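Supplementary Methods, section 5.1.

A reviewer requested that the exact input to the structure prediction be made available. We therefore reproduce it here, unchanged from the version used in the analyses.
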Amino acid sequence: MALVWRLRQVMASRGIWSGAELGRLMERSAGYKLSAPSISALLAEAPRQVKAQTMDALCTALGCTPCDLWAHTPSMIEATEQQAGEQQKKAANDSAHRVLPPI
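The structure derived from this sequence is encoded token-by-token as follows.
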């Protein structure tokens, strides 16, 4: 599975261009103070884990949901398995509708 961290895109769509601005907004709207290095880390790359309080403060400040901050694309294995399943269903459906010649 591939998760894409979209914090910068969500911020940009709301006209928020800096980590300092995000930090002030989080403190003002959610009452949650996050250190400058922590905000910088969130902006630099996808976090390996996020505290529920931090996610709540981000969503409150940005007026979004966790689904807005993360985008999911199926991994190659999942996509391959899904395609194989679809091909099996199609083959089963085709054989069910096949008309056999008279004997």
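The helical segments are 7-13, 19-30, 36-44, 52-62, 66-69, 76-96. These observations are discussed further in the main text.
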